[in-house]
Amino acid sequence: MKILFVINPKSGKTEENNLEDLIEKQAEISGFEYELYHMHGGNFIKEISKKIYSYKPQIVAAAGGDGTINLLAALLENTKTALLIIPNGSANGMAKELNIKNIPSAIKLIEDGVYKSIDLLRINNRVCIHLADVGLNARIVKRFEDDPKRGLAIYAKHMLAEIFLVKKYRFLIKCGKDEYIRKAVSLTFANASKYGTGAVINPTGIIDDGKMELIIIKPFPTIKWFGIAWKMFSKTLETSEYVEVIQCTKAHITSKTSTTLQVDGEIIGKVKTIDAEILHKALTIIVPAGN
What we know:
Oligomer: single chain
Structural class: alpha+beta
Radius of gyration: 19 Å
């Protein structure tokens, strides 16, 4: 078996040499061949595509954050090559979703993990493996992206700053024959269930059911924020009077004003129109047994 390890040195805090030592040791145990690709510069998509084509690995392992995972998921969509997620980012939302706790346990999945076909989302022609949204959280992500520092404490700082500047949007949502007009501070397109912080935005989310959830956070008094946050961490957000969940396979959303769109933790830019659809079982990943 051949494995291509794609390492983003700008993600996380783990030393590359330590990661490479773990890979070498696992290769000795499992008996696989491997090559390393370091994302130091250049056209990542083109270079990694060439490497996959020439090396023909059975597994591509992504060592980085959710942005790195997103890049590899897009390249491996509807192929027979499996994706292994090695959590080495600031939040590691998709790794948390799959109960991949750390780098050593992720690498060990080469030996004892199971293969699973999961859904992807396509948001404005961009693949999304985890979560995308517009509004409140996207604005927090934008602040976080512009900050040279990383970590959950920095994310929390920007979240607290944004709470007192919450903007309201008016969305026209079309899902098949159904239409909804909603005022909201946030609209999430969910394949998965939780953010990298552990906050559960989509308690009923299943990553291979062929459906996505639109989670609408309606305008709320600032004093209610901590109650909403508590429901997120207690996995009961859908019980909030300020939350509505719409399940569908395809959606077209328009906003009266431009709003920031983020996909898997990466800022795409400001948009007024969003097209989203589910891509059923479009990606094979390696997960811990029992997932």
